[in-house]
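Weekly modeling sync, notes
Attendees: AB, CL, MP (scribe)

Item 1: holo prediction request
CL wants a bound-state model with iron/sulfur cluster before deciding which constructs to order. AB pointed out that an apo prediction alone won't tell us much about the pocket. Agreed to run with the ligand included and paste results into these notes for async review.

Input as submitted:
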Amino acid sequence: MELNIIIAGVGGQGNVKAAHILGLAAMKAGYNVNVSDVYGIAQRGGAVLSHVRIGNVHGPLVEEHKADVILGLEPMEALRATAKYLKIGGIVVLNTRPIYPIEVTTGKMNYPDVNEMIKIMKEIASKVIALDAMKIVEEEGLPMALNIAMLGVLASLNILPFKPDFIEEAIKEVLTFMTEKNINIFRVGMKSITFA
Amino acid sequence: MKHVIAKDSPGEKVLLLGNEAIARGALESNIEIAASYPGTPASEIIDTLALIAEDFGIHVEWSTNEKVAFEVAIGGALCGKRSMASMKHIGANWIVDSLMHAVYHGFNSALLIISADDPSGHSSANEQDNRYLANMAEIPVLEPSNAQEAKDFVKIGVEISEEVRLPVMIRMVTRICHSKGVVILGNLNRISKTPKFYDDYYKDFVLNDNIVGPRAVPKMHEILHKKLEKIEEIAKRFQLFKEENGGGYYEDIGIISSSVAVSYILDYIKHRELNGKIKLLKLGLTHPFPKNIVSKFIKDLKKVLVIEEGEPFIENNLKIIAKEENPKLEILGKLTHHLPREGELNYSIIDNAISKVLNLEPEAPPREKLIFLEKVSKILTPRTLTMCAGCPHRAAYYAAKKVLRLLKKPEYIAIGDIGCYTLGMYSPLRFMQDVFGMGGSIGIANGVFQSKIGVPVIATIGDSTFYHAGIPALINATFNKANIKVMILDNFVTGMTGYQPHPGTGKTAMGLETKKVKIEEICKACGIDMIKIVDPYDQESSIEAMKEILNFPGPAVIIFRRICAQVRLRMARISGEKIVKCFIDKEKCNGCKTCIINFGCPAIGFDLKNKKAFIDVNSCVGCGVCIYVCPNNAILR
Ligand code: SF4
Ligand code: SF4
């Protein structure tokens, strides 16, 4: 068994924490796991990729064009990761709310159209699940928990080799602050795509 | 439980970062003193240890710089406490002086150096292979290849260090420091040793031959060499060398590797179903070079491929040995361009290299994907780094630039230093023209002034860096009358590496209260007669102060003091404080973009449709500096 997941987002979105929770859940379920976070200088606002490798794996990073799943916390970073890492026929799970880079806010460049990006992803992915997860967490009053909601969406897709309970257990271990609220968000995330 | 590394449950599996694994290794091997200066990718070692230090009676500190950290560890080891100092690769440059002395000594307790190399320079100014530093100092180097080994090698390092009485280096690399893997916990047998100053070393090892003074030096050097001769045997005992994969099919081809590269090779062997078909020698110790082990491995080979992270260290050493053992051996690696010499390794690089040697087809990326990649890259925008929204450094640079413009001094030379504020070199601020290593800004500004360049000479440096390495250079400015202007950007924290405390914060690594060492008092004691302290959010006062500094006839210091915006946000979140954000009055905004082009707070965006600026409420921290920046008074709170 080998499952390679990349969580793509921007510094400050809780990318690293989500990867840790996912990895911890896999370990609790009895799997070997490697988790690596790739980011530039230790600063906010830059692109962050977390590589989560579950099963009989050795290297710290997912090989190019071999990821089974891209979990995108930010659409453009998800597309970037899809291009570089997703295997043909892999799955993309996407939060559609953009975070504009400085090149865009300063009006120097245009941010790509989100619907267009989703359309392009479909050329390579077998499935693209796109939703405004930011809206969900805002409605729940916990905008910080976007990462947890997205883990919920991922867990509802039946691609992980273990039950969502293991993720809940991992959340309890990692998020000692507002634990119950986060578990709730995770569950909301799990139910969200049937309504989307 | 403050951190999983504190768990007393031998045999339990936990998920640990390589750096956390080092911290756990320190705990399991009874390290009692650990010191460091923050530096990515090594910082989490001390960050983690500091959380649990008090419970285990360990002394953990952020020292003022790496040299001091290493000397603290020497002092600990000298008094019978197992000690370690951790640092990033460039940080280790600071310890060279102390290290070259320490190796001639000998300690009764373990002395470890944890050195984290950063190939590709993900968060560093260079790529530097510290195995060469260990080579120069003549100390053993252990190279863990994953988190489990990171933990285990600390323990082995401790034992080797005590057995031969030498400092031992554990060479980490970014991809191990910052990767998490499953680690099986070992025993925690903490015992606090009673401190005792051991003075037996010179007496027993050196002076018993009745040689003193300079004549003792070659003798001590000889002792060092004798110690090194034993290392390979000891390392064998600790199973630091592994033939991971028995040779079968490819009889006369072998691979030698160390560190994280081993894991890529194991993935390759798995993918290519080469299990049991190709010989792989994994070196857990690379210095002193394990001559016997390697000689035996290459004896009957025709070709050997060396795969290592960093410089061709193993490769070069192998050449020397092969000359005697197997002169016809073809040695392939970085020097033969089978692998790139620069940058970090990854799976594809290794796939290409091994496949070529084995005459296999390298795995080509699917054509469809390459076309896709090309197509996508056309619509993607880059995401360059910038200082955070509300960063006080941006405000400080903005004020300084404004003054230089007001004083009609368009020409100036500003040298930057190492920290978040280094980003002030890039657009839109473009304040400094150049940057060097830690503390270099003030020192280099000294020389720039002495060149009689005739324009204002400015050095910018952060608080932590000032304590680390700025002070002697500032004294030098007074001493040698270098009329430089030093901007000290004090945000009360070592921001770039993860918000560690420093001597100005009044808190130690372990969170204990301590006396604050004030930057202004140091500057005064360095002989600086003009010192200004301002809040960069207060642009008017900042501009006034900056003017005075520039007009002062002699070296002068301006301290821009305001807490790091990220730390402030975190504090507000904990205390529940509501932050009042800024917004833009659409009526008044004429779309001039001053706030964006000249200032560049990432919370301010530009709406291309109605040609007006806007502020993103999610990222704005309400610092209010943009209110001052807008020439049309369109920004309000
Ligand atoms: S500086 Fe003021 S007027 Fe100019 S774009 Fe910014 S908010 Fe609008
Ligand atoms: S108040 Fe202005 S400068 Fe400060 S964070 Fe908000 S938008 Fe940026």
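Recorded for review: The mean pLDDT of chain A is 92.
Action items: CL to compare against the apo run; MP to circulate these notes.
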